[in-house]
Amino acid sequence: MNGNIWVVAEQWKGQISEITYEVMALGRELADGLGARLEAVLLGHNARSLAAGLGKADLVLYADHESLAEPNIEALMSALVQLMRERKPRAVLVPLTNVSMGLSTLVAAELELPVVNFCKDAKVVDGAVQATCVLYGGKIEATVATAGDSAILAVWPGARQADQGRSGASPAVEEVALELPAGLCIKLKRYLEPEMGEVDITQQQVLVAVGRGIQSKDNLEMAEELAEALGGAVCGSRPVIDQGWLPLSRQVGKSGMQVKPRLYLALGISGAPEHLEGMRGSDLIVAVNTDPAAPIFNEAHYGVVADALDLMPALAEKVKAAKG
Ligand SMILES: Cc1cc2nc3c(=O)[nH]c(=O)nc-3n(C[C@H](O)[C@H](O)[C@H](O)COP(=O)(O)OP(=O)(O)OC[C@H]3O[C@@H](n4cnc5c(N)ncnc54)[C@H](O)[C@@H]3O)c2cc1C
Question: Burial of 168 by CB count in 10 Å (0-12 exposed, 13-18 middle, 19+ buried)?
Answer without folding.
Answer: exposed
